[in-house]
Amino acid sequence: GPERPFLGPQEAHVWRVRLDLDPDRVGELKTHLSQDELGRAARFRFDDYGSHFIVARGCLRIILGRYMKSDPTEIEFSYSAQGKPHVLSNNGCDATHFNLSHSGDIALVALRKVGGIGVDVEYTKRGVRDMKIAERFFSEAEVRALKEVADDMKKEAFLNCWTRKEAYIKAIGEGLSCPLDQFE
Asked: Residues in the chain with pLDDT < 70?
């Protein structure tokens, strides 16, 4: 992407990040992380998950640094009670409303100037018991609609609904404390 991106007041930018990078690039990105992030990366039980976390957070810092015109290592985050991160000091830049999601070997970083933003990505190859999850977490109308979808489209319909719901709760900063069956 551009070194100095411009984000208009009514725009949202979404960056796609590949997470399956070679170890040298992962090592470079690791140098951008805070001590807290390094500790979180070290807690992953599988090396791939830890390196994916490093790449996602390192690239998030680089992207934010481009918008904020600052060094990625100088960006500090604080977290809401629900765990939503935000930039602690934005150096006067108002393009720091962001959200990050990663799954499989891809991550998405979404940014806006004004208001909350949420993004979600899901690995579509994994096995999911769609209807069991839908019946537990979706609204009654969403479950009815999902039951009407042709069998060969159910998984796609389920994931479309799930990712939208997750992106929404991330945008409002509630996380999973917001009951997913209470909105459509």
From this structure: 90-95, 126-128, 176
